[in-house]
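Entry 14. Structure prediction run on the chain below.
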Amino acid sequence: MKTTQSPTCVFCSIVAGKAPASMVREWPDAIAFRPLDPVTPGHVLVIPREHVADVGTDPAVSAITMAAAAELAAELPSANVITSRGAAATQTVFHLHLHVVPREHGDGLPLPWTPQHAAAQRVST
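Output returned:
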C-alpha cells in the first residue's frame, strides 16, 4: 500500500504521529484507535495508513481496512462495523474509517434501520 497522506486531514496526522490518539492496534496498512466520543464502551475507529477519502474511492484499500476491522469485530460477541460515504451519509471526516461498535442488548444505540429505532421514534413523538 502507498503511504500517501493529506496535510490537512486529521486522520493522516494521527497516522503520521503528529496528532494524539489512543491506539488500540496497528497493522502494516491500517491502525485502530479510540474515537474522542465513543458511542459504546470499546468503540474504535479503523483507518488505512493511506489517505483514501471513503469506502468507494479505492476498493483494495477498503478491503484491507475491512479485514483489520473484521479482526477486531471477531473478538467481540456482538458488534456493528459501519462506514459512511459522503456528507449525505453522515461522513464528517473524509478519510476512510470504519467504526467497530461493540453491542449489548439494551445498550440504547438504535440504528436507523432497526425495530429498536422505530420504537425509539414512537416514544419520542
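The domain at 10-124 is CATH 3.30.428.10 (HIT family, subunit A).
Filed with the rest of this week's runs.
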